[in-house]
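Quick question, first post here. What does this chain look like in 3D?
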Amino acid sequence: MAKEGPNWDGLLKWSIAHSDGTGNPRNLSEEDRKWFMEAMQAQTIDVVKRMKEITQVMQTPDNILEEQGVTATDLEDMLDELQEHVESIDMADDLHSIGGLTPLLKYLKNSHANIRAKAAEVVSTIVQNNPKSQQLVMDANGMEPLLSNFTSDDDVTVRTKSLGAISSLIRHNKPGIAAFRLGNGYGALKDALSSESVRFQRKALNLIQYLIQENPNDSQVITELGFPRIMTHLATSEDPEVREGALRGLYELSKDKPVKTDDTNEDHEKLKQVLQERINDISLMSSEDLAAIRDERQLVDSLWTAHYNEPSSLRDKGLVCDDADEPPPDVASRVLVSPLRGLNRPANNGDKSEKKEAPLLPGPGPGP
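> Answer (accepted):
Ran it through. Tokens below.
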């Protein structure tokens, strides 16, 4: 368990100070202090105890769970609860200390697709903005089942959730990025772009942007694998996030490259056609619609300038903001990182109004 917890004493002083509007904390009686500290310690202990109980269930063989009437839905609910607990960085790190990380990673290979997907969500929460947990997952060989599910799982939801977990795992994690490359991660990203799942495409595009920004030399590999042609096609998508993500990826690939002014290359000519059609569509939009695609307008103009060494006609029409010469905003950072871990939790599948308590097996649990 983590040795350093929250400063409950300071929190109590702040709470009392702001509850009566005075802004100045009053002196605490020893009785108040003792009550509050015991209450907070009890709650912390309960969370760890609950995580240990969940770990016990995850360590139990499938046949025993079936004999006890534990269903796949029960296990999904249990993982939902675990995800709430590990939103706290302290609790995320403690999961390894109590032996829960290894059985969680084994759930990535569960026979039920929904459990594989939910396990990936929990892993994503654990490693998000948490270098220590990133290292623990890497040391436990957690990248291997995540990559396997991302690249070849039959269920697109599992593939999407696994990609989300990988994105969190390798962010600011050079060994993780290296493992992603060695595991044919770029090939899997190319397949994701060709998927019919819009959500899968979005996540892939966001990760591609981040990888190019972190490793500009990878642009050559990405280009050789045929990403530009696929992203040019996705730039015509009806989904605004996919469209913008594709344009942003093309922009990242075009930076610091020689300007091309001829149309002899088929892919280059196709990109020009797509950009011109998008310019025509944008020119006919209402003010309300234009406001909703501010970043996209800037990207179209930036791409046109990068490839043809002149501003697009959007600028002549006053449809590009004054700050268009500045680099387009970094959407990948907004998607892949959140200042508060809890705000970036993946949404639950379905509409569950109540949480079920994780099933606990009668009698002694499995040994450590």
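DSSP finds 21 helices and no strands in the chain.
The CA atoms of residues 312 and 321 lie 13 Å apart.
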